[in-house]
Design goal:
The structure is a homodimer of 334-residue chains. Chain A is α/β, with parallel strands linked by helices. Chain A folds into 3 domains: 4-47, 434 Repressor (Amino-terminal Domain); 61-163 and 297-321, Rossmann fold (3-Layer(aba) Sandwich); 165-295 and 326-331, Response regulator (Rossmann fold, 3-Layer(aba) Sandwich), CATH 3.40.50.2300. Helix content of chain A is 42%, strand content 15%. Chain A has helices spanning 4-11, 15-23, 30-42, 49-56, 77-89, 107-115, 133-140, 165-178, 194-210, 226-238, 251-263, 297-310; strands at 61-65, 94-98, 121-124, 144-147, 160-163, 184-188, 218-220, 245-248, 273-277, 291-294, 318-321, 324-326. In chain A, strand 8, helix 11 (251-263) and strand 9 form a beta-alpha-beta unit. In chain A, helix 1 (4-11) crosses helix 3 (30-42), helix 8 runs parallel beside helix 9 (194-210) and helix 10 packs across helix 11 (251-263). Strand 2 of chain A pairs antiparallel with strand 2 of chain B. The structure holds a DNA duplex (16 and 16 nucleotides).
DNA sequence: CTGAAAGCGCTTACAG
DNA sequence: CTGAAAGCGCTTACAG
């Protein structure tokens, strides 16, 4: 491997000039620049990143904790990681993956990675209600940005990017309404998580706005599973709610609803319109396909990187992005 | 941040001694070691990784190209990444994620990451038939290990770890046989990929061994989609093949088969036993669940890291691991 | 516009 | 067992 010194010798300039050619080319006279660049190319020179990082104390690496929740598979993680990676690379940075215990037990790992200068900062995701990581990192002065809000806190520590769940539900309700549905149920999650409340609120408000009934049409599932989605759908139908639309809080729940409809000889997208959330690979697995709310991954990733790497310190930044309804057969006009 | 120098001053030893306390503690006298360690703890010292890497020219980072194939979602990628990360961390290393164009167009990216010392080497996955990356990397002398074989080459460049697809199919056939099935079909893939041939071969051989028919029972799908799995299953049934078992090359294809069976009023796991490959999250999405062949992710990851970081140069290493059959309702005794 | 010098924080032979 | 010195490959003020 060629070094800066060798390039300098070859181009008959000082190392400083070569460094400038790379990092501040405008400082060089045109002919010098050209000569240096020729030498760089000829020697196939690539700056050693470790030397640079040591000097500048910036590693241009962003830490991301790869989640491991067997009970809640992150079905769009590959999409998210690809988008995050691509966004980081657009600024000359990369993503460093690591594992850590959940919650506060994982903080020493975050701290260590930062202290040993393996990363400049972190992107947090899989945010939980009362997530302790944000406050901890902020207190330590470790740079981070969160994908997802920490709910149930008056003011969230640090910057975040999230997708507007309420607007998503409203979009789904409006779409079902426009395809002729008038009794639209909502399938929610177990305990009152912030995310669930957000999406439920959007359903409720939009139904009210459209003059649709909501009483008895919102149900909570015990867990995010297909079986629960099916069970709850069965309960709604058995109770004689006469529903003709279902907005489910997740694709998994929505698929459960579809299964129950099929089992009863009802055609999803015909008698009952169904929508899910996140536009996971599951949405394309059923037939007809599941209408679902897509998270704008590229935009999310772009904002995360921009905030983490660009925002001047102390500027709390918050970005709420809009989901997009991907329409498939499960919500075809009835 | 405390530096080595400050720790040395605090412990009243030379920097060299502190370095030894960290990297070769056996060289220190017990009391010196203890004194140094106390100072390290007191000053909350963490060695700067960039300085270390600059000196040793090892970054302890392993590159992994995050795939982006919308048409072939990597359904177990999160499992793989978690296992890979954990295995790397057990050796003090981490995973660096990056994106690159597919095929030979991506090689400059690999080269650049290595030349600029962002990574020591690479883990390749999503290996394709005739994958050009292996030969290229080997030629450049860039360390790598492949998860998955490059088929159609007499001798594959570089070390690899893979899962025995033939053994997997054989396991599935034997299981279906043991639950009473005697006419077991195989759902394969479009063109003759090495992976597809491998798995098809296992089905064929095991059927022959058990004295089961194979003629007309092996079909190729045009793509890895649910619809194709369903279409091909319908064709088999319409042709009066009287099948009572289906070994599918992927979970997606298997799910298609299940859908078609359900559509015809047949109960999977009752009249027809069905198995898939990879034990993706999809396997748990259907009801009854899909029996599928699980790849031993932790073992795969462990071997990959061991080969990449431990093998002395020039030792070509090849590891073929065994999949495990995860039995669910789709293959319950008929 | 260009260059000589110092220094980022470590590790590695080499002496003692 | 411990220490003084050199050096990994860059960048950053600072002079000229």
């Amino acid at each position: 491997m060629a070094t800066l010194k060798q390039v300098a010798a070859h181009a008959e300039v000082s190392v400083q000039t070569v460094s400038n050619a790379l990092n501040a080319p405008h400082r060089l006279r045109a002919d010098t620049l050209e000569r240096v660049n020729k030498s760089i190319e000829l020697l196939n020179y690539r700056p050693n990143r470790n030397a640079r990082s040591l000097r500048t104390s910036a590693v241009e690496l962003i830490g991301y904790c790869v989640p491991n929740w067997p009970n809640q598979t992150h079905l769009v993680m590959d999409q998210f990681l690809h988008a995050l990676c691509a966004a980081a690379e657009r600024t000359g940075r990369h993503i460093l993956l690591f594992t850590a215990p959940p919650g506060v037990d994982g903080m020493p790992t975050y701290d260590d990675l930062h202290a040993r200068r393996l990363v400049d900062g972190f992107v947090l995701s899989q945010t939980e209600t009362h997530d302790p990581r944000h406050g901890w990192l902020k207190e330590q002065g470790i740079p981070f940005v969160s994908f997802g809000r920490v709910w149930k806190q008056t003011t969230q520590p640090g910057p975040w990017v999230d997708v507007d769940g309420a607007a998503g539900s409203a979009l789904a309700v409006r779409h079902l309404y426009e395809t002729g549905r008038r009794r639209i149920a909502f399938l929610g999650w177990p305990k009152a998580s912030g995310l669930a409340e957000d999406r439920a609120g959007g359903w409720r408000d939009e139904c009210k706005r459209l003059g649709l009934p909501i009483s008895g049409l919102s149900v909570r599932c015990r867990e995010d599973s297909l079986d629960e989605g099916a069970r709850v759908t069965a309960a709604l139908l058995d109770a004689g709610r006469e529903i003709d639309g279902i907005v489910a809080l997740s694709d998994v729940l929505a698929l459960g609803a579809l299964r129950e409809l099929t089992r009863r000889g009802l055609t999803a997208g015909h008698q009952v319109g169904v929508t899910g959330f996140d536009d996971s690979p599951l949405a394309d697995v059923v037939s007809p396909g599941l209408t679902s709310l897509r998270q704008p991954m590229d935009e999310i990733a772009g904002e995360l990187i921009k905030i983490l790497t660009g925002a001047p310190d102390g500027t709390p930044t918050e970005r709420l992005l809009q989901p997009e309804l991907v329409i498939r057969g499960s919500s075809a006009p009835g």
